[in-house]
Write a structure and sequence with these properties.
The complex is a heterodimer. Chain A is built from six helices and no strands. Chain A is an all-alpha fold. The longest helix of chain A has 26 residues, at 49-74. Chain A is globular. Chain B is 65% helix and 6% strand. Classes of the chains: A mainly alpha, B mainly alpha.
Chain lengths: 163, 354
């Protein structure tokens, strides 16, 4: 299991770097799909089957399909590198390093290696998640859905104006 | 005695199961092409394949050999990596979902319980949906990477179509899920055992979901046909508009892989229709132990065959939709009907459980 985790983690990180490094948009999108799928398998290793499958259905299967669809529709070819700004050139690397250190510190404080426990010790099945979502967190859930509905309506209105 | 030998036996059983299921699936795909050509031929008052073997029974093998021996042409301007990746991705994903399909109850031998299923996930149904939703990439990427206008249009059409109909597909099964209360395919089939009792009287009607979810079934099957890009929803490969659609630029074995994944997907959605609405392997079972073990598998295959035959029958009968009709049908008819079905079912389930 641990070996599998390291393989998947490496894959996820390499693919994530490739999202940024690739010049062609389609390759970036495909790399992102690899990241999402390897994360899904990590969830599976933790015993959270429902989350793993939902991750694939929602992110890899629905959202990324739209990304790829748009890239195809625009028939976007190779990305043309712009003249990099001087500020990004000097500040980019140190800022990324600082951000990384900050995240590592936060994770280190949150989860000391000894007290992590697999999700299989919790009930991560669809029934348990459903109970939580529709009993304890029903108000945030409904508010979120209204928010998304407003966003959809807004997008539709904006798109209609173009015609 | 959970020692190495025991673990080894379990592993061996799983490997044998995978091998058997894979071989049977591939053989079914091969002979489904034969069946399709034969049935469509007879619908059109022709003979169909007749020369290779008795009644053309060796035709699939000849076709396979031909596909292997043909020249593999790659367009000069194609995006090579993705062009290669697309057919393999499609075929692998198409074979993936069979892993969670249960074919029968199973049996016990030397203390090992062997179920007729590679693995029973507690979210089996969602797993199938996840794998199917990834299948879009194969078609979309094939169309894009060919770098040619007809495949690109075919790929765009098919991704739009599959995204649209996936919604109805998902909504159609919600009713079944609410009735059976589980996402495990084995659990859903088990909830359909026995007969319907109306007011304490045995109706001798099998306890299948089709009798309480007829609307759900119709929505599911219509969406499933669109999802597998079959006639009357095969716009992505409409010959008279798009030459061959997304696989126009593909030749040889890579073309055959698209072909095979289409048939594998047909088998998967037919399996799901059987499991969700027609009681899976449940049917009259009698006789000695061997019969009790294998009759359910026979019932499952018989039901599956009916669906596959229906697919082919429809291909021989119906004309193709127009693209705007297809989209309007999916969004303005199928989706609302699916939502209505969910609403009515949830109301009834809530009412019944008090």
């Amino acid at each position: 299991m641990v070996v599998l985790f390291y393989i998947l983690a490496t894959l996820a990180v390499v693919a994530a770097l490739s999202v940024v490094a690739q010049r062609k948009p389609v390759y970036s999108a495909l790399s992102l799909i690899v990241v999402l799928c390897s994360l899904a398998v990590v969830y599976l290793l933790l015993g959270a089957e429902f989350i793993a499958v939902i991750q694939v259905i929602v992110y890899a299967g629905a959202i990324m399909v739209l990304f790829v669809f748009v890239i195809m529709l625009l028939n976007a070819g190779q990305e043309v590198p712009s003249h990099r700004s001087r500020m990004a050139h000097w500040l980019g690397a140190p800022l990324v390093a600082a951000f990384l250190v900050e995240i590592l510190l936060a994770v280190w404080q949150q989860f000391p290696a000894a007290s992590t426990r697999p999700a299989s010790s919790l009930d991560a099945g669809p029934a348990a998640i459903g109970h939580l979502l529709f009993r304890n967190y029903v108000l945030p859930f409904e508010v979120t859905s209204i928010l998304i509905l407003v966003a959809i309506l807004g997008a539709a209105v904006l798109a209609k104006k173009e015609f | 005695m959970a020692t190495f030998s025991n673990k080894g036996v379990v592993l061996l059983i799983i490997l044998i199961k995978i091998a058997v299921v894979l071989v049977v699936l591939l053989a079914t795909i091969a002979y489904l092409t034969w069946l399709e050509r034969k049935v469509v031929a007879h619908i059109q008052a022709r003979w169909g394949p007749y020369l290779v073997g008795p009644h053309g029974l060796l035709q699939p093998i000849a076709d396979g050999a031909k596909a292997f021996l043909k020249e593999d042409i790659v367009p000069l301007e194609a995006d090579k990596v993705i062009y290669w990746l697309a057919p393999f991705l499609g075929f692998t994903l198409a074979l993936f979902s069979i892993a969670v399909i249960p074919f029968g109850e199973g049996f016990t031998i030397y203390g090992h319980t062997i179920s007729f299923q590679i693995t029973d996930l507690n979210v089996g149904l969602l797993f199938v949906f996840a794998v199917t939703s990834l299948g879009v990439y194969s078609i979309a990427l094939a169309g894009w990477s060919s770098n040619s206008k007809y495949p690109l249009l075919g790929g765009l059409r098919s991704s739009a179509q599959m995204i649209s109909y996936e919604l109805s597909l998902g909504l159609a099964v919600v009713g079944v899920l609410m009735i059976s209360g589980t996402l495990s395919l084995r659990g859903i089939v088990n909830s359909q055992a026995g007969f319907w009792h109306v007011g304490g009287v045995n109706t001798y009607l099998p306890h299948w979901n089709i009798f309480v979810q007829p609307v759900g079934f119709l929505v599911y099957f219509t969406a499933a046909i669109a999802e597998t890009n079959r006639i009357p929803f095969d716009l992505p490969e409409g010959e008279n508009e798009l030459v061959g659609g997304f696989h126009t630029e593909y030749s040889s074995m890579k073309f055959a892989m698209f072909f095979m994944s289409e048939y594998a997907n047909m088998i998967t959605v037919s399996c799901l229709a059987t499991l969700l609405f027609f009681g899976g392997w449940h049917g009259p079972v009698l006789g000695p132990y061997v019969f009790r073990v294998f009759l359910p598998v026979f019932w499952f295959c018989a039901k599956l065959f009916c669906f596959l035959f229906f697919y082919i029958w429809m291909r021989g009968t119906l004309p193709r939709f127009r693209y705007d009709q297809l989209m309007a049908f999916g969004w303005k008819f199928l989706l609302p009907v699916g939502v209505l079905n969910v609403l009515v079912t949830s109301f009834l389930v809530a009412w019944k459980s008090g």
